[in-house]
């Protein structure tokens, strides 16, 4: 651990929950599909599956996956985001804590899928990224999937420059025993090519 605050907290001060929720409500009201991540994940699963939404924010994705028949646990370090999730879906399990210490937060491992969407990995505390990837990999059952979405340039990040490369991320995944299965440029499944500004990656844990 580095002792540094995560980049999300530096950007928002941990007070972004209500505004974040309103932003997606406005998008939905204007006709935008706000369930792309959930749809993507649901196509990889057979219900009911156990899903860990790591960096769940206000619970938008986990709530939708629960509506589709999956058992979802959400974890986030931002109490303002979790307050919205708990208000909107009080029956679901929401855990407050640092993903670098996921194993101390109590969720039963052996998830079928672990999701880290919404630039979770780039917005971690500097230096904790490899530890977080190890924690997420350890939460998977054999054959389980780690699904991540992250911006790779300033146009797709709330940062002036990307804090990590896709090669670094793949290296951390390999060190954690994961294998890259698929990579896309969007949650809609558009093909990924070198130089794309966004990557949706599907890594898997070995079956044995």
pLDDT below 50 for ≥5 consecutive residues: which ranges?
none
Rg computed from alpha carbons, rounded to a whole number of angstroms: 16 Å
Give the mean pLDDT.
91
| Structure classification | alpha/beta
Helix content: 25-40%
Note the run of SSEs as H and E.
HHHEHEHEEHEHEE
**Strand proportion:** 15-25%
EC number: 2.1.-.-
InterPro entries: Methyltransf_25 (IPR041698), SAM-dependent_MTases_sf (IPR029063)
Protein name: Class I SAM-dependent methyltransferase
Organism: Streptomyces bottropensis
Structure write-up:
There is one protein chain. With 208 residues, the protein is of the alpha/beta class. The protein has helices spanning 7-12, 17-29, 36-42, 60-67, 79-88, 129-138, 166-175; strands spanning 50-54, 71-76, 93-96, 111-116, 140-151, 179-184, 198-204. It has a 7-stranded mixed sheet with strand order 3-2-1-4-5-7-6, with helices on both faces. Helix 2 (17-29) packs across helix 5, helix 3 crosses helix 4 (60-67) and helix 6 (129-138) crosses helix 7. The model has no long low-confidence stretch (mean pLDDT 91). This is Class I SAM-dependent methyltransferase.
List the SSEs and their pairings.
Layout: H1 7-12, H2 17-29, H3 36-42, E1 50-54, H4 60-67, E2 71-76, H5 79-88, E3 93-96, E4 111-116, H6 129-138, E5 140-151, H7 166-175, E6 179-184, E7 198-204
Parallel strand pairs: 1-2, 1-4, 2-3, 4-5
Antiparallel strand pairs: 5-7, 6-7
